[in-house]
Amino acid sequence: MYDINSVNLIQSMLAPGLMISACGLLLLGIHNKYGLVVNRIRTLEEEKRRIIAIHRKDGLDPDQKVRFNSIVMQVEKFEFRIKLVRNAVFFYTLAVAFFVLSSLAIGFNIMTGLSGFQTLSLILFLTGMTSVLVAIIFAAREVWKGYAIVRIEVKESEIAL
Predict the structure, then answer these.
(1) Eight-class DSSP state of 119
(2) In 3-state terms, the chain is what percent helix, strand and coil (to 5)?
(3) Coil, strand, or helix at residue 107?
(4) Distance between CA atoms of 128 and 25, rounded to whole angstroms?
(5) Residue 13 counted as domain residue
(6) pTM metric for this prediction
(7) Residue 59, by phi and psi: left (phi above 0), alpha (psi -120 to 50) or beta?
(8) Containing domain of residue 66, as a range?
């Protein structure tokens, strides 16, 4: 059976542990989005190369020019968007590191009784929460930029009609 100190240690370390799990789920989602954005950039760049090859060979008709300009605008916006996703990934990962350090500081505080670890664990935990907030802001901006890219596609199809 656990003694009271072991139970207190485990309970005290639980909050940072839950935040580690929460950030892990957020990281999983944002990593998937990162992959989708990278794949979309690659697809658009491949289409752009095909259009350039057609232009060199036969010239472009008006519809191909509209599509080419649309691709250029989209890639530019995707490049900005991928930076936002990268920043969100970075800050979620940083938050996990701070939560791990916070959990360790809590453990050292309970095991040694030194009050400095208590202050350190609180600072590390709050820094981790701040990193989560920053990551969420980057993720929200990325969603907003994603909408702008969809608007480019919609306008392109309206022009084509």
Answers:
(1) H
(2) 95, 0, 5
(3) helix
(4) 15
(5) no
(6) 0.78
(7) left
(8) 19-160
pLDDT of residue 1: 44
Match 């542990």 to its residue by tokens. 17
Tell me which long-range contacts 102-109 makes (C-beta under 8 A, separation of at least 24): 102/16, 102/128, 103/13, 103/16, 103/17, 103/20, 106/9, 106/12, 106/13, 106/16, 107/9, 107/12, 107/13, 109/12
Provide the domain count of the chain: 1
Q: Which pLDDT score is estimated for 3? A: 53
User: Would you state the pLDDT for residue 8?
Assistant: 67
> How far apart are alpha carbons 4 and 74 in whole angstroms?
59
Using alpha carbons, select from 101, 80, 86, 95 the residue that is nearest to residue 30. Answer: 86
Locate 31 and state its tokens.
């990593």
Q: Determine the straight-line distance between the first and last CA of the chain, rounded to whole angstroms.
A: 75
Neighbours of 54 (CB within 10 A): 14
pLDDT band of residue 9 (cuts 50, 70, 90) is low
113, part of any domain: yes
**92 and 136 in contact (C-beta within 8 Å)?**
no
Sign of CA dihedral 55, 150, 132, 30: negative
- Which distant-in-sequence residues (6+ apart) come within 8 Å of 121 by Cβ? 102, 103, 105, 106, 109
